[in-house]
Amino acid sequence: MKVLKMTLGLAAVSAMLVACEKAPTNGTATVATNAETAVGSPEIVYVNSDSLLTNYGYFKDVRDRLQGKAGQKEKDLRSQAESFQKEVQRYQQSAAGMSEQQRASTEQRLAQKQQQLQALQQSSGNELATEESEEMKKIYDRVEEYLKKISEERGYRMVLTYQRGNSAILYGDSTLDITTQVVEGLNEAYEAEKAKTTEKKEEKKK
């Protein structure tokens, strides 16, 4: 009994486009002219969303946690479903020896239990989907905040997202790809955050 097909992945970040200032709007020639500053530093760069999420520690931790949670819920629901099926089988085997009233009462109870299981399955799926959506927003916010920070530091006017086969960017010079730097910066910040959390937990134990 499948609770939720995990969709946590590229959906939110692959649609990301962060403009740190208003981008030029008077045609491709202007974009090409303004793609680099006078000193040779690019103003428009891009990030490969596939590589970013594959290598971002926070995303991997969230994905693993949600998949584990979904797996446990699915296991619990499967166990309850199997138990219910056994009850149905026992009823089918003994129905012939029951009175009409007993059969009606048992069938009503089994029908109610089936409805409860279906409702539980639905609520479990909704709960996981809501949590997944909330976590993807957190990931998006973290990435956006970091991109704004480095854009201010390095003079980027726009950071585009690239995903092979699903992108408005048909070609991009590899020198404009800042994915590695972004992943390294995000992971460094996340590791520092985890270290602080661990320190706080240790202090509370003392």
From TrEMBL:
Keywords: Signal. InterPro entries: Chaperone_Skp, Skp_dom_sf. Gene3D superfamilies: Skp domain. Residues 90-107 have a biased composition (Polar residues). Residues 1-19 form the signal peptide. It comes from the Bacteria. Residues 108-122 have a biased composition (Low complexity). The keyword Metal-binding does not apply. Residues 90-135 are annotated as: Disordered. Pfam families: OmpH (PF03938). PANTHER family: CHAPERONE PROTEIN SKP. Belongs to the Skp family. This is OmpH family outer membrane protein.
